[in-house]
Design goal:
Keywords: Membrane, Transmembrane, Transmembrane helix. With 85 residues, this protein is mainly α. The chain has one domain. Helices cover 59% and strands 0% of the residues. The protein has two helices and no strands. Helix 1 packs antiparallel against helix 2.
Protein backbone atom coordinates (compact mmCIF):
# COMPACT_ATOMS: atom_id res chain seq x y z
CA UNK A 1 0.00 0.00 0.00
CA UNK A 2 1.39 3.40 -0.92
CA UNK A 3 0.67 6.77 0.56
CA UNK A 4 0.99 9.94 -1.47
CA UNK A 5 0.62 13.47 -0.23
CA UNK A 6 0.61 16.73 -2.06
CA UNK A 7 1.38 20.10 -0.64
CA UNK A 8 -0.43 22.59 -2.79
CA UNK A 9 -1.63 25.92 -1.56
CA UNK A 10 -5.39 25.87 -1.38
CA UNK A 11 -6.05 29.25 -2.93
CA UNK A 12 -9.45 30.22 -4.22
CA UNK A 13 -10.46 32.05 -7.34
CA UNK A 14 -10.24 35.54 -5.82
CA UNK A 15 -7.42 35.08 -3.26
CA UNK A 16 -4.41 36.41 -5.17
CA UNK A 17 -4.06 39.37 -7.53
CA UNK A 18 -3.08 37.00 -10.34
CA UNK A 19 -6.23 34.93 -9.85
CA UNK A 20 -8.40 38.03 -9.86
CA UNK A 21 -6.73 39.32 -13.03
CA UNK A 22 -7.03 35.99 -14.81
CA UNK A 23 -10.71 35.70 -13.83
CA UNK A 24 -11.36 39.20 -15.21
CA UNK A 25 -9.55 38.32 -18.45
CA UNK A 26 -11.64 35.14 -18.73
CA UNK A 27 -14.86 37.09 -18.22
CA UNK A 28 -13.86 39.68 -20.82
CA UNK A 29 -12.96 36.95 -23.31
CA UNK A 30 -16.34 35.30 -22.86
CA UNK A 31 -18.17 38.63 -23.26
CA UNK A 32 -16.21 39.52 -26.41
CA UNK A 33 -16.94 36.06 -27.80
CA UNK A 34 -20.67 36.44 -27.20
CA UNK A 35 -20.57 39.89 -28.79
CA UNK A 36 -18.75 38.52 -31.85
CA UNK A 37 -21.21 35.64 -32.19
CA UNK A 38 -24.19 37.98 -31.94
CA UNK A 39 -22.67 40.44 -34.42
CA UNK A 40 -21.97 37.60 -36.84
CA UNK A 41 -25.50 36.28 -36.45
CA UNK A 42 -26.90 39.73 -37.24
CA UNK A 43 -24.51 40.19 -40.16
CA UNK A 44 -23.01 43.38 -38.75
CA UNK A 45 -19.56 44.91 -38.58
CA UNK A 46 -17.14 45.09 -35.70
CA UNK A 47 -17.16 48.62 -34.23
CA UNK A 48 -13.39 49.17 -34.02
CA UNK A 49 -12.03 47.08 -36.88
CA UNK A 50 -14.87 47.63 -39.33
CA UNK A 51 -14.72 43.99 -40.41
CA UNK A 52 -17.99 42.64 -41.74
CA UNK A 53 -19.02 39.42 -40.00
CA UNK A 54 -21.29 36.61 -41.07
CA UNK A 55 -22.43 33.60 -39.08
CA UNK A 56 -19.27 31.59 -39.83
CA UNK A 57 -16.79 34.30 -38.86
CA UNK A 58 -18.87 35.18 -35.81
CA UNK A 59 -18.79 31.58 -34.60
CA UNK A 60 -15.06 31.38 -35.31
CA UNK A 61 -14.58 34.50 -33.19
CA UNK A 62 -16.70 32.97 -30.44
CA UNK A 63 -14.68 29.76 -30.45
CA UNK A 64 -11.25 31.44 -30.34
CA UNK A 65 -12.23 33.89 -27.60
CA UNK A 66 -13.98 31.15 -25.63
CA UNK A 67 -10.79 29.08 -25.88
CA UNK A 68 -8.74 31.95 -24.46
CA UNK A 69 -11.41 32.45 -21.79
CA UNK A 70 -11.22 28.80 -20.72
CA UNK A 71 -7.41 28.94 -20.62
CA UNK A 72 -7.52 32.09 -18.48
CA UNK A 73 -10.13 30.54 -16.19
CA UNK A 74 -8.01 27.41 -15.70
CA UNK A 75 -5.01 29.63 -14.97
CA UNK A 76 -7.06 31.54 -12.41
CA UNK A 77 -8.21 28.38 -10.68
CA UNK A 78 -5.16 26.12 -10.81
CA UNK A 79 -2.09 28.40 -10.80
CA UNK A 80 -0.02 28.21 -7.67
CA UNK A 81 0.56 31.49 -5.85
CA UNK A 82 3.88 33.02 -6.81
CA UNK A 83 6.24 35.33 -4.99
CA UNK A 84 3.42 37.47 -3.57
CA UNK A 85 2.85 34.91 -0.78
Amino acid sequence: MTSATTSSADSGLFDTPFSIGAAVVALLCFLVGIFMAWTGYQGGTLPVAGTELNIVTGMAGLMITAFFGVVALFAAIYMEPGFDH
